[in-house]
Amino acid sequence: MENIAARIEQAIQLLECGKYAEVIKQLTPINQDVPDNDEVVVLLAEALAETKRSEQAIELLQRRSQHADVAPDVIFALADELFAVDNVKSALEYYSQLLNIADCAAEAWVRIGMVQIAQNDLNEAESSFLNSLKCEPANPSALNSLGSLAMERQLNCVAKDWFQQAVTVDDEDPEAWGNLAELYYDEDDLDQAQHCAEKSIACDDMYAPAWLTLGYIALDQDDEARVRECFNKFLDLEDGVGAEDIVLEVKAVLAALKD
Fold this sequence. Notes:
By secondary structure, this protein is mainly alpha-helical. It has helices at 2-16, 20-33, 38-50, 54-65, 72-84, 88-98, 105-118, 122-135, 140-152, 156-169, 174-186, 190-203, 208-220, 224-237, 244-258. The chain is 78% helix and 0% strand.
């Protein structure tokens, strides 16, 4: 078991480095020998999904999900993968299973809300996020989700309040700090925007949106060197999914600075 634990830890490190093929090579034989190790199943499924093998990932997770002793993490991972391939109905069914487990209900409501946002059902999504807070009043995921939903509705004061609650719960929440930075930037409060963006990257220097905000702040301050630094960092981190227009805009700014 110690050897398996060590190999799982190594696989986690490889996943963080994006070495998905190595994770698959390492965990596949372990999964064959110990198919009921749920941590191995989840990590292997993640690596398979990252290498465009979503069908294999879903099959692996579904096979394990049929056992009575399956861990909730497997159900979450399965629902997430189904949602990622637009099988919304099945994703909701699995998320709903988790509502009956006390320790999982708060996060399950958040995931259900995310699905409802994708379906453009914002009122139902808000209800789901609020249900999450009923289960766990200080749930950072729900607080951030309610803040993001308020931003979507252009209710910036409401959004700011939710994000402030999130950082009160967890002062090292890069998402909440990053969103606060964006809100303050939109209000032309560059000092507060910079403070919040820097707090965000201090928590997680891989959080792309905070680098984007810092780049815009630098642009407003005519600090070209800092613009290049922040925007290039943003482009290195941003995968482009759902952010194509922003990526094009950032690239255009960087190209203009070269002229």
